[in-house]
Amino acid sequence: MDFYFGLGQLIGVHTLLGLSAYIVLLTGQVSLAQAAFFAVGACAAAMFTVLAGWHIVPALGVGSFLGAVTACAVPDGADTELAVDVVASIPAIAGLALGARFGSPSLVS
Question: Which residues contact 38 (CB under 8 A, 6 or more apart)?
Fold first, then answer.
């Protein structure tokens, strides 16, 4: 059952991301900024569930809200640079979350 639950989550996440890119493409524009705002919301929701111990539903709501606030805070024309910056920093954010959850590795043995 866990396999199907995880598979459903992956299908849902990729469907949302694909539809958000498709809706922007329907307008005749090409922008990857929605992926950056999606990443902000996803990282926030992941941190609320893993680090704060929240249930998934309120964490998704707060993550969606934070992604929307980030999108509203960006001025017009700056979305491409933000997308590149946010997507490039996702591995660092994930490493920070993993380090906070499991403890940072010791450099001295």
Answer: 16, 17, 20, 67
Is there a single domain that holds both residue 17 and residue 61?
no
Residues 22 and 40 in one domain: no
- Residue 83 to residue 27: CA distance in whole angstroms: 19
Confidence tier at 109 by pLDDT (50, 70, 90): very low
Structural domains in the chain (count): 2
Distance, in Å, from the CA atom of 91 to the CA atom of 69, rounded to the nearest integer, reads 22
For the stretch 46-83, pLDDT in tens is 889 988 989 988 998 999 899 888 888 877 665 555 55
The reported pTM is 0.57
Instruction: Convert 47-80 to b/e letters by CB count within 10 Å (16 or more is b).
Output: bbbeeeebeeeebbebbbebbeebbeeeeeeebe
Structural domain span for residue 77: 31-102
